[in-house]
Structures are given as C-alpha cells and as structure tokens.
Amino acid sequence: MATHSDLDNETVRTLLNRRSIRKFKDDPIDDDTRAVLETVAQRAASSQYLNDWSAIRVTDPELKAKFAEFGRQPYIAEAPLLYLFIIDEQRNARIAERKGVDTSSPDWWLTASYHFTQAQNDAVLALHAMETAAYSLGLGCVILGSVLNDVPGLIEACKLPKYTYPVLALAIGKPDQEPALKPRMPRSMQFFENEYPSDADAALEGLDEFDATVHQYYDLRNTDRPVDAFSEQIVKVSGQDTSSKPLLPNAEAQGFHLEK
Hints:
Blueprint: H1 4-7, H2 10-16, H3 31-42, E1 53-57, H4 61-71, E2 81-88, H5 90-98, H6 113-136, E3 140-144, H7 151-157, E4 164-173, H8 200-203, H9 207-215, H10 230-238, H11 248-253
Antiparallel strand pairs: 1-2, 2-4, 3-4
Helix pairs in contact: 3-6
C-alpha cells in the first residue's frame, strides 16, 4: 500500500498546484526550453497512431494581436510563447494521396465525425502534456478556448488549409502573478463507482458548501468582488446564446463531414 511520502512527489505537486497564469514577464523562452516543450507534446497519446494534430507557433506580433482580438483578452498578445493546436488531417490526406488514395472518395473516412473527435482529443492531450511540462519547468500557462470566438477569422489569420480545424490555444511564459488556487468541487460530485448516480440529489451532496467556497474565491481579473457561486455560474452560462459559434458549418467549410 502506498504511503503518504510515496504519493507526494514533484509531478503530483506540479499538477495539484496548477493554476492559470494571465500575466507574464517580458523574458523570452529560450530555444532549448521550447524544443523540450514541443517534444513533450509529441510524446502524448495518439489515437491509432495517426498523429492527426499539429500546432501553429505564433510569433508574429500582428498575429498575436489578432489572437487577442479574437479572444477579447489583451494579455494574449503579450505571451512570450503562444501556440494554436489544430486538428490536422491535411497531412494525412497528402500522405494517402501519395499512396494512390482518392481523398475525394466517400470511402475516405479521415474527415468523418469519429476521426474529427479523435483528432480533437489528440490535440488536447498534446496541449495538456506541453502545459504540464511548462509548469514543471517553473513556467506559467493559460489555455485559451476564447480564441474560438471567431473560428472563421482564426482559420483565415493562420491560413489553415482544408482538413484542418482549430482546437485550443496555449499561452506560456514566466509568471508575473500568483493567483490563488481555484476551488474544485468535492470528488464525490465528480467521481462515481461503476455507474452514474440514479439519485440526482445525492450526487449533489456538498454543493452548498462548494458554492460558498467558490464565492469566497477572488479572481485576479476582478479583484474587487468575489466570484459568483458555482451554481450561479452554471445558470448564467447555460442561458448564454452560442448560436453565433456553430461547429458544423465551420467544420464543413474545412472539408469535414460530421454527419458521417
């Protein structure tokens, strides 16, 4: 049986102390560190060994400013290291065509919903591996789903070809802030034994206490007021209209067939 000392190591501490960093020092990230982070991302799990993700390293200041515009977060433009992780079946299409495969055929399935989802998963796993490695090296990160506010604009700005699709961005740099750890809900509300709980109320045991804890947390983005209780955040977000951010038309425009 593992002892407490067995379970307390540098990797676990790094993960338990993970927090989003939105303010970075001006210090650049050296080439060796960047190479390590990129190689770690490549070592992440890959479904069916398709390697169907890529990452755009964003270094051009004007393009960084575009990302900040898409994400509506000015600090994005100040990140020393910025990546956009993408689904990438473009590379596999070119490889298949070299082997005589007709990628316009309905029998070519790498643009179908199953592979789209698997490639999206692979991109997220690679990003998370890079993020964890960055934290272990004393760097800070923030994952940027906000850049997807304008998927067509993002595709145009990064010149993403057919059979590619943006997933998430990751900003990395030396931290210039020390935010408090954001609360997490009780494990009993998120980890279940063998099946999903049939008693919905029992599954929410601990919610009131969690709401109170979250409400006591102060986000550095709004230091003048406490964060809304978790339940209130759910209500607020669930009522926000997302019809301007459709997945299907944007994916179809990139050559994917999510109805398959």
